[in-house]
Amino acid sequence: MNYRLATILAREAVSADGTKVIDLNLVDPVSQFQIIYESLGVSAGPPDALAAQCVTKIELVASL
Length: 64
Fold this sequence. Notes:
Layout (H helix, E strand, L loop, with lengths): L50 H4 L10
């Protein structure tokens, strides 16, 4: 079986709470999304929180 790995969004720094909407126009079937999140410390301090505490909701909405 052939697998394909594609990067949809490049790494970015986020300094405030917010919502990110990403429109995906996909032709091929998708069986898995991998979301990678790093919680980094501010300046030289420890990370702000665990990733599960920083990202409260991920929502996938299919529209036809």
